[in-house]
Specification:
The protein is mainly α. The protein has a single domain, classed as ABC transporter involved in vitamin B12 uptake, BtuC. The chain is globular. It starts with a helix and ends with a helix. The relative contact order is 0.17. The model has no long low-confidence stretch (mean pLDDT 82).
Length: 326
C-alpha cells in the first residue's frame, strides 16, 4: 500500500510540473525551474509566480479537500454514490455568495469567499440538527434526506435572489461555474488552517470508519462511539468541502470518483482509502485544469466542465453496477 501511495504522490508531482509548464504562453521546463528559485520580474517569472503557481496550489488544496470529503461521505452514509453535496454544502455556499453580493454589495472574491464558507457551515449544521432529531438520530439515511431537503430549499432561495436582482448574476455566474484560476495564494494562506484541521480529523477516523462499516451494533461492540464519530466526520466534511466550494465554486464528481479509484487499489480499508483519495483528488483537479488550458484553440474550459465531462459517464457506469445499486 505504501508503494502505491508513493506512486500516486509521484503522479501528483508530474501533474504539478505539467501545470507550471502548460498555458497560452509556452515556458520551457528549464526556465520554470530557474524562475522558481530566482528573485526577478521577467516575463517567465511573472507567468509562473503570479499565474500558474497560485492555480496549481489552489488545485492541490481543492483536490485534497474534495477527495477526503467524498471518501468520508461515502463511508459515513454507506452510499457509494454519495458526495459532499449530500449535506447541502454546495447549496449553502452558493446561498452565502448571493447574500454577500446582493445584500452587502460585496463584489470581490476575497470578500465573498468567507460568506461562501459561512453558508456551507450553516447549511451543514442545519442538516445535522434536523437529521439528529427523533429516534435513530444521526443515521446516514436521515442525514442524506435532511441534506437533500435543505439543499433544495437553499437552491430555490438562490434562484429567487438571482431572479430579483439580475445584476448580481454577472458576478455570481463566474463563481458558480467552478474554477481554480481566479483565487490568489493569499486566500489559500487564510484558508489553509481549515484544510489542515479537516484533513487531520479525517485521517484519524480511518480505524473507526472501518469498525462502523461492519454495522452499527458491531461497531459499538468494538468500542466505537457512533454519535461522536459521525459528528467528527461531519465536522471534517464541513471544513473540507466548505473550503473547496468557497475557494473554487462547485466542482462536481471529484469527491465521487476519487474514493472509488482509491478503493480499486486499496480495498475497503479506510486507513488507506482516505490518503489515496486525497492524493488522487488533487491529481484529478490538476489534470482537469491542465486539459482545460489546451483543449480549445483559444481560451480555456473551466475545471468543473472537464470534471463533469469525465465524471458523468463514470457516474452512469457506477449506478448501473448491480453492487452499487444494491
Amino acid at each position: 500500500m505504501t508503494t502505491g501511495l508513493l506512486v500516486a504522490v509521484a503522479l501528483l508531482l508530474v501533474c504539478v510540473v505539467l501545470s507550471l509548464l502548460t498555458g497560452s504562453q509556452p515556458v520551457a521546463i528549464g526556465e520554470v525551474l530557474r524562475v522558481l528559485f530566482a528573485d526577478d520580474r521577467s516575463e517567465p517569472a511573472i507567468i509562473v509566480h503570479d499565474l500558474r503557481m497560485p492555480r496549481t496550489v489552489v488545485g492541490i488544496c481543492v483536490g485534497i479537500a474534495l477527495g477526503l470529503a467524498g471518501a468520508l461521505m461515502q463511508s459515513l452514509t454507506r452510499n457509494p454514490i454519495a458526495d459532499p453535496g449530500v449535506l447541502g454544502i454546495n447549496a449553502g455556499a452558493a446561498f452565502g455568495v448571493l447574500v454577500a453580493i446582493v445584500g452587502l454589495g460585496i463584489g470581490d472574491f476575497t470578500g465573498y469567499v468567507w460568506f461562501a464558507f459561512l453558508g456551507a457551515t450553516l447549511s451543514t449544521t442545519l442538516v445535522y440538527l434536523i437529521g439528529s432529531r427523533g429516534n435513530d438520530s444521526g443515521a446516514p439515511v436521515r442525514l442524506a434526506l435532511a441534506g437533500t431537503a435543505v439543499g433544495a430549499a437553499l437552491v430555490s432561495a438562490v434562484e429567487a435572489m438571482v431572479f430579483l436582482d439580475p445584476k448580481a448574476f454577472d458576478e455570481y455566474r463566474f463563481w458558480i461555474v467552478g474554477d481554480i484560476a481566479k483565487p490568489e495564494l493569499s486566500v489559500v494562506g487564510e484558508l489553509l488552517p481549515f484544510l489542515l484541521v479537516g484533513a487531520l480529523v479525517a485521517l484519524s477516523l480511518g480505524p473507526r470508519l472501518n469498525a462502523i462499516a461492519l454495522g452499527d451494533e458491531l461497531g459499538t461492540a468494538l468500542g466505537v462511539g457512533l454519535p461522536r464519530t459521525r459528528l467528527l466526520a461531519g465536522f471534517s466534511v464541513l471544513l473540507l468541502a466548505g473550503l473547496a466550494t468557497a475557494v473554487a465554486g462547485p466542482i462536481g464528481f471529484v469527491g465521487l470518483a476519487a474514493p472509488h479509484l482509491a478503493r480499486a487499489v486499496t480495498g475497503p480499508d479506510q486507513r488507506w482509502v482516505l490518503p489515496y483519495a486525497a492524493v488522487l483528488g488533487a491529481v484529478m483537479v490538476l489534470l482537469a485544469d491542465v486539459a482545460g488550458r489546451v483543449v480549445l484553440p483559444s481560451g480555456e474550459l473551466r475545471v468543473s466542465i472537464l470534471t463533469a465531462i469525465v465524471g458523468a459517464p463514470f457516474f452512469v457506469v457506477l449506478v448501473r453496477r448491480r453492487r452499487a445499486a444494491a
